[in-house]
């Protein structure tokens, strides 16, 4: 009969091996709005990046309703019902986290405007009730978040973001590494933006991986959603 201590040690080793296999398998290729996205193993620490050609950048300039219309995916699959909230998190655009009064309140009157800048797009969000937020969506800028954002993050958190253009679409990749007392994890988002029918079509895939630090456990959650944001001129 196997003693309890060796049996427990063997179980832990088997669990750790299963965990390692699961973590290594947490990669693959998916399609986000017809764009092929290769997801490296999250433990590699690399940011998901797509090919980029600035000549393929879409014309995103316009004013859009902040409240979107779901086209595909689970309604709870992503924070994509409100365009301002999506740009604030998970994309964490520089500037949008700046404190404003009054606080943002989503409503049919809320709008988000994109205007082309030298290094990307300027973003202006108005909720029609006094709240105003201005940010920047930079191209090809992988960084650990804007300076004004860092004070809002918990110790152990790290954010990287990169954006580029391909197939007439803008892609934005964000990697958020986080750490707590008993677990550590990675949240990765790849968003594809383009014009459609005068509005803004946004498709996003999320991959969330978590590993236990004290006990060997691993979870993965994946989702994809698509929302269309109508031009504001059509919806006063």
TrEMBL record:
Keywords carried by this UniProt record: Lipoprotein, Signal
PROSITE patterns: PROKAR_LIPOPROTEIN
Top-level division of the source organism's lineage: Bacteria
Secretion signal span: 1-25
Keyword match Lipoprotein: yes
Descriptive protein name: Lipoprotein 13
The organism's taxonomic lineage, starting at the top: Bacteria, Pseudomonadati, Pseudomonadota, Betaproteobacteria, Burkholderiales
């Amino acid at each position: 009969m196997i003693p309890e201590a060796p049996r427990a040690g063997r179980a832990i080793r088997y669990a750790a091996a299963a965990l390692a296999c699961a973590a290594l398998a947490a990669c693959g290729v998916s399609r986000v709005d017809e764009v092929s996205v290769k997801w490296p193993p999250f433990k590699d620490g690399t940011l998901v990046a797509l090919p980029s050609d600035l000549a393929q950048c879409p014309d995103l300039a316009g004013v859009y309703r902040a409240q979107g219309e779901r086209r595909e995916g689970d309604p709870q699959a992503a924070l994509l019902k409100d365009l301002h909230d999506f740009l604030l998190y998970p994309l964490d655009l520089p500037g949008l986290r700046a404190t404003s009064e009054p606080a943002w309140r989503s409503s049919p009157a809320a709008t988000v405007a994109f205007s082309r800048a030298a290094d990307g797009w300027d973003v202006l969000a108005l909720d029609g009730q006094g709240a105003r937020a201005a940010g920047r969506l930079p191209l090809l800028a992988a960084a650990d978040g804007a300076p004004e954002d860092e004070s809002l993050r918990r110790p152990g958190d790290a954010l990287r973001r990169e954006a580029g253009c391909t197939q007439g679409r803008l892609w934005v990749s964000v990697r958020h590494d986080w750490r707590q007392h008993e677990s550590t994890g990675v949240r990765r988002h790849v968003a594809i933006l383009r014009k459609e029918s005068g509005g803004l079509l946004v498709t996003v895939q999320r991959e969330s991986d978590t590993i236990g630090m004290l006990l060997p456990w691993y979870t993965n959650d994946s989702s994809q959603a698509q929302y269309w944001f109508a031009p504001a001129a059509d919806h006063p």
